[in-house]
Batch of 2 targets.
Target 1
Amino acid sequence: MSGLQKSIHIKTFGCQMNVFDSDRMESILVKQGYRREADLAQADVLLINTCSIRAKSEQKVLSLLGQLKPLKEKYPKKVIGITGCVGQRMGRSLLQRVPHLDLVMGPDGVERVGELVEEVLTRGRRVLETTFDNQKERSYSQPAVIDKVRPSEYLTVMKGCDHFCTYCIVPFVRGREKSRPIEELLEDVRRLVDRGAKEITFLGQNINTYGKRTGESLAALVDLTNSIPGVERIRYVTSHPRDLGTDLIEQFGRVEKLCPALHLPFQSGSNSVLKRMARLYTREEYLEKVAALRAACPDIALSTDVIVGFPGETEEDFEQTMDVIRDVRFSGAFLFKYSPRPGTRAHEFGDEVPDSVKTERLAHLQDVCFGKIKEENQAMEGQIVSCLVEALDKKGRYYTGRTPHGKLVHVLNAGEACVGKILDVEVSEGSASNLKGYYVGAPRQNRVGEAAKAVPA
Ligand code: 5AD
Ligand code: SF4
């Protein structure tokens, strides 16, 4: 790198895959001689890794860019870049629209981020890199960054998606499905657990079809990971109901370290909406998968994604979504208003549901769905749950972790020494969003700070 050591800050929006990509970009730049800077405003190079799944996600990025204009005017040498899905989707038009932006690149530019930033710095040019690696070649390599390992680590195993759900921008900004080689993933898992990780969550947009072009499979990845010493818990996201085969379902009853939890988006309970979404399953087929999962693993915790107000969704369609929410006891849910994404097929459907109707349906869905989750969590008061303590919460109040079923737990008497430990926690309170409790065998009055003394056996 030329000149004095420059500093770098990466701000991440969106999903865990973006967190993984940001870690990689940071590690590449640090290896190249950049220094990490915690304060966004102070960094010589500021990259914003973005999400374009809904219009709102993009608006957040554009408004941040607006706020950065005075900073760039004051420090013209500061480099500001947009990476990730918004970069891919908006490309050149983003550079044109935002004159104080120096770099725009898509998710496939991650490995080249070093050269691209250098190009801006040394040539003083504005750089656009949205070429897309859409070849269906064997696999791609992208080892995880091992220098700051957390108790619960995410590992990207594939990128892209071959489904074209008609509302979804992902296939356009992340390209076709491509998997990483299984040996590289197992090596990543070993290195992560050697550095203290206990729980591994495999990530892919459509994880069930991992390795489909290369003769590898998610079931094999799970089985092989199960036999790696040091791994305590295995999870994966996101499953597509059509691709969740019997091999994967039966693993929930057999594989010791596979957590009894699965995120299985159903999106809509109406067959006519599902058809227009091109989801490739019916409501009945979805419910059959749920039944098979519960037969294999009776206490499995299911979570889901739902979209309300898809073009043409009638009151009756929406009622069918409500029925699924009432019938399947979900332990967690992400509920969204449909957001039209330019370039997707649904964007051309017309028949847009008015925003006021979407808002009303969402509120109704939230009431029922979160009401049921609250009941489930309240019923756990007094029970002992096992919790892998991960970190202090964002406000610095409590140490938090998750149960095998994926429930978020605030461990009220835990301290720093508990991080990375799997503790028995007695639940004192359950709400719609979390469980609160005290870990067994330690004083209950402890709080953060003083709590560091409470060391588990
Ligand atoms: N509008 C609203 N929600 C969407 N999702 C994906 N695309 C859209 C969209 N255009 C939701 C789906 C998906 C989750 C990650 O985001 O529910 O499962
Ligand atoms: Fe989007 Fe559908 Fe692919 Fe999921 S399966 S990433 S919703 S296109």
Target 2
Amino acid sequence: MAESAPPAPAKTQLPQKSVQELVINGEELPENYIRKDGDRGILDVPLVEIPVVDLGLLASSSTSGEELEKLRSALSSWGCFQATNHGVTLPFLDKVREVTKQFFALPMEEKRKYAREAGGIEGYGNDMILSEQQILDWTDRLYLTLNPEDQRKLKYWPEIPEDFRQVYSLQTWDILHEYTIKLEMITAAVLKAMARSLNLEDNCFLDQCGKRPTVTARFNYYPKCPRPELVHGVKPHADASAITVLLQDEVEGLQLQKDDQWFRVPTIPQAFLINAGDLVEIMSNGIFKSPVHKVVTNSERERTSLAVFYLAEPEEEIQPVDSLVTESRPRLYKKVKNYVDIYFQYYQLGKRPIEAVKI
Ligand code: OGA
Ligand code: NI
């Protein structure tokens, strides 16, 4: 692995302004946000009905057969599914959506208290500028480590909005803590069901991720953009995770690529959109797809989302499960650890990181 790794990225520096400030100030689109690819008419692509999987049915042995097959089929074709009946109530999901919106609506001085530091990853900010040619995404983010708990950097966890605290007698990070615990259960159940759907041991994907898997949260804010066709909300990418759990608001924007065609992903208020990431594609020896996706902005409405990435423990080795390597399905991926490091290096070079581990 080491000899094929690309050079380390240039020293990081913070961009001058958040995307939100560019919008508030009514500035011209800065050159470094304008896409150079020729892809136009981007908002006008077909809507796709992503398969809906009932997690409650998956859990019970009498009803799981058909649902497992739905899960397997969704992940091997689209690489994602809409998860319903997951045990988190709609009012709680709405609360998480609300606090996300309220955070990004805070005055800039307040948000800057949580600003990412130069060279760091966690905190509030927009794209790190790593090279002069880089095209920036039309988004501001708050990026936090949720697990392992002793790695949380609470100085970046917002303490407001106040009304949120009054209603629930909790601080923002208490809501986030509760959300983390709920997602721990959901991600474990989904990773087990994924294994079962391939007739594997329940824990074979979970075990590879280690005893202390890293779980991170990315709160995404996509301000309205006067010229949405000229920018990316988020550039096309696949996730570095084993799986990602996305909570969308009611504004569409996510698009998914399948067979070189882009599709709009609908938003379902009570559902999580769960997608396979590169680690699951590797562990399943390519049976489950880590889908390429992107976010498109619009000029009418801002959009927020919350992506939670279930990653492996950095030092754990990830590789295709033995029994999924057969004569008719040869091994597609090498062993890999510290995938997140490889991921960012390749991503910045505009390459698909999973290429780095293909045999
Ligand atoms: C991501 C991502 C999608 C969205 O954060 O990796 O793909 O809808 N987000 O914000
Ligand atoms: Ni993503």
